[in-house]
Amino acid sequence: MSESTTPSAGRADATVLKFGGTSVADAAALQRVAGVVHDAQRGTRPVVVVSALAGGTDALLAAADAAASGDPKLMLPQLDALLERHAEIARGLARPESAKGIGTVLARARAEIADLLERVAAEPEHQPALRDEIASYGERLSAALLTAVLLAADVPARYVDARHCLITDETHGRATPLPNTEQRTRAELAPLLDRRLVPVLGGYIGATLEGVTTTLGRGGSDYSAALVGAALAAREIQIWTDVSGVLSADPRVVPGARPIPSLSYAEAAELAYFGAKVLHPKTIQPAMERDIPVRICNSHAPGDPGTVVTARGEVRAGAVKAIAHKTGITVLQINSTRMLGAYGFLRGLFEVFERHQTVVDVVTTSEVSVSLTVDDAGSLPAIVAELQALGTVAVESGRAIVCVVGEGLRITPGIAARVFATIADINVSLISQGASRVNLTFVVEETRVREAVLRLHEALFERQGVDLGAAAAAEELAS
Ligand code: ADP
Ligand code: ASP
Ligand code: MG
Fold first, then answer.
1. Does residue 106 share a domain with residue 201?
2. Is residue 272 part of a domain?
3. What's this model's pTM, rounded to 2 decimal places?
4. Which of 47, 175, 257, 425 could form a disulfide with 168 if both were Cys (CB 3.0 to 4.6 A apart)?
């Protein structure tokens, strides 16, 4: 019998519950989390993944930055305040003996972090690894704290060091998980689940095969939860955050954005990739590979229905489900007559980006030009220098991507016309209908992106009488 079919290998009755920073910001928030985990024990076996307390990772990384600039003590008062927040919550919510234990853990962490900061200043060549080690305290401490709070709420919680589960490559700051992660995660968690214990692990962090601490990139706790869920073949992966699901637009730009009851994996992946911060862009892939539903819930309003993401999202009247946007984008345009009738040109072009480990998001081509976008401009000067061997290169910075998403786009004519008519006075470039055909993506100037998103939301979701996708919905339901 192969490993994946042994009865204890999969945990079809496990549910992963991931709580983001705002869900563990203070004592009241942690108490709500304890209530959610307590209730989840009915009918399923919870596995808890938790982020650093709100602002924790920012504070730790700011301290590492200060140390890198030669002042390892500059941010110690801010770090003390962060550690004190943990202590105060423990005193308020944990049993006295666990609160004392947390106090000891915090004192040790303070000394270790201070030492690591000194090393950042003294050993510039080790900065990436030291930064990850420093950042990891955010999740390690919040997971220890949440374990103590759950125990006080009669949940049989057990702290697990996530670095024993998530095994990654050595790319500090944005590490990629290795296949060993599945087996290691199961080996760590299955025995606890078999004993009806509730594992609690920090998101965002992992370790190399040699045991050196790594991180998955900012916002990476969602991804951790998905990896843990996939390893356990969990029943569901729940992302508990501070909004009631994936909304029809970024609520910080569109106050009237509404929760979307259901999304397909393809829709959610496009939204996450093109700026919907509520999900880390890599969250969907592990879930999709195992066909595990992802549910986005509000820890401040646990009764709200939230959003469920599955292989096939519900088709509802309205072809467009949401608008995402992402700022800080650079557009590169490469013009070359050598493209005409030549093969191998595009390969050579993309190899430049591969060499510099720079992801290209949107691409459009004409007979003599290629336009594309990148959001990590770190290696741009070197990339442009190499591209100049292929043709003339124009660089436009300060751009933003807007992405209109909905399964119904596949079959509803006229949406592009409606979208572009709505923002006719805003300069649009690089229009791309994604290969998955669930998105219409284009680039505008960053200074006008809020206005573009607001107007599109108004036109596509709020204006009376607009029933963009009714025909499409009817057609698909009938098929
Ligand atoms: P957490 O700390 O729980 O991981 P995040 O701050 O990473 O939470 O993600 C939740 C936030 O994402 C929301 O508060 C909201 O401001 C932002 N957001 C951006 N776009 C969307 C969207 N389309 N739907 C929901 N939230 C969004
Ligand atoms: N704490 C990490 C961050 O702030 C990871 C996360 O919250 O998902 O980026
Ligand atoms: Mg997040």
1. yes
2. no
3. 0.92
4. 175
Best of 24, 36, 243 to mutate for ligand 1, by most ligand atoms within 8 A of CB? 243
Answer yes or no: is the C-beta of 277 below 6 A from any ligand 1 atom: yes
Q: Is 215 in the pocket of ligand 1 (CB under 6 A)?
A: no
The ligand 2 atom nearest the CA atom of 222: 8
Answer yes or no: is 316 within a domain. Answer: no
277 belongs to a structural domain: no
CB of 283 closer than 6 A to ligand 2? no
Does residue 256 lie in a domain region? Answer: no
**192 plus 90 within the same structural domain:** yes
Q: Is the dihedral of CA 83, 89, 95, 96 positive or negative?
A: positive
For the chain, how many structural domains are there in total? 2
Q: Can you give the CATH number for the domain in which 342 is found? A: 3.30.2130.10
Q: Where residue 74 sits, what CATH number does that domain have?
A: 3.40.1160.10
Per the structure, the complete domain to which residue 456 belongs is given by: 322-478
CA 136 / ligand 3 centre spacing (Å): 16
Instruction: Kindly report, residue by residue over 342-384, the tens digit of the pLDDT.
Output: 788 889 999 999 999 999 999 998 888 999 999 999 999 999 9
Q: Which two tokens stand for residue 50?
A: 């938790």
pLDDT tens sequence across 61-109: 999 999 999 999 999 999 999 999 999 999 999 999 999 999 999 999 9
Domain end residue (candidates: 242, 265, 290): 242
Q: Are strands 262-264 and 307-310 parallel, antiparallel or unpaired?
A: parallel
Q: Which two tokens stand for residue 384?
A: 């442009």
CA–centroid distance, residue 179 to ligand 1 (Å):
29
Per-residue pLDDT reduced to its tens digit, 223-279: 999 999 999 999 999 999 999 999 999 999 999 999 999 999 999 999 999 999 999
Whole-number Å distance, alpha carbon 220 to ligand 2 midpoint, is 6
Distance in angstroms (rounded) separating the CA atoms of residues 204 and 223 = 7
Sheet with 439-445, strands from edge to edge, namely 360-365, 369-374, 322-335, 392-405, 439-445, 429-433
Residue 135 near residue 215, CB atoms below 8 Å: yes
Q: In this structure, which residue's CA is closest to atom 11 in ligand 1? A: 278
Nearest protein CA to atom 4 of ligand 2, as residue: 57
